[in-house]
Amino acid sequence: xxxxxxxxxxxxxxxxxxxxxxxxxxxxxxxxxxxxxxxxxxxxxxxxxxxxxxxxxxxxxxxxxxxxxxxxxxxxxx
Length: 78
What we know:
The protein is mostly helical. The chain has one domain. About 70% of the residues lie in helices and about 0% in strands. The chain has helices spanning about 1-20, 30-35, 45-75. The longest helix is centred in the last third of the chain and has 29 residues, at about 45-75.
């Protein structure tokens, strides 16, 4: 069971890093390299940005729950 939670933690950590790098920064960033700067001149947030925000929050919740579950599993391990 410990290896399952560790695998989920590694996968969600890598995916979280990718998602954070794709977000539009204030001064540009990695997201501008993939066309993120085009929608910034339009004003409001686009559907893609909102979906990216939701996905990032969802993966963050999975990451947090996995950290808690792994900590509890290791704390009560015999």
